[in-house]
């Protein structure tokens, strides 16, 4: 398996929220746009703190943004 075993729906959620930009999400979460890019591409698993920040930015629970696809 390539990347991380943590899958996410960040891209879908951004577009459901009025096509929120990666930069807007990064700013809301206190990270760089490159971090959001890596998360969306599945190359990076967020810290628990960042996962909470992302979920809060979308107004949803963590389980609506992230899911475990590992073994």
Q: Give the H and E element order.
A: EHHHHE
Strand order of the largest sheet: 1-2
Number of DSSP-assigned strands: 2
Instruction: Note the overall shape.
Output: globular
Q: Total number of helical segments?
A: 4
Report the portion of residues in β strands.
5-15%
Helix/strand-derived class? mainly alpha
Please, what is the average pLDDT?
A: 94
**Major sheet: size, sense and barrel closure?**
2 strands, antiparallel
Tell me the span between the first and last alpha carbons: 10 Å
Estimate the helix proportion, in percent: 40-55%
Provide the gyration radius in Å.
Answer: 11 Å
Low-confidence stretches: none
Report what the structure shows.
Helix 2 (22-29) crosses helix 3 (33-40). The chain has four helices and two strands, in the order βααααβ. It has helices at 10-16, 22-29, 33-40, 48-58; strands at residues 6-8, 66-68.
Fold blueprint:
Blueprint: E1 6-8, H1 10-16, H2 22-29, H3 33-40, H4 48-58, E2 66-68
Antiparallel strand pairs: 1-2
Helix pairs in contact: 2-3
Quick recap of the structure?
The chain has 71 residues and is mainly alpha-helical.
Please give a handful of descriptors for the protein shown.
4 helices; 48% helix; globular
């Amino acid at each position: 398996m390539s990347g991380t075993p943590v899958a996410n729906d960040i891209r879908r959620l951004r577009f459901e929220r009025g096509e929120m930009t990666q930069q807007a999400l990064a700013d809301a979460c206190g990270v760089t746009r490159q971090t959001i890019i890596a998360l969306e591409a599945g190359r990076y698993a967020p810290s628990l703190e960042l996962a909470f920040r992302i979920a809060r930015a979308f107004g949803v629970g963590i389980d609506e943004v992230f899911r475990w696809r590992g073994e």
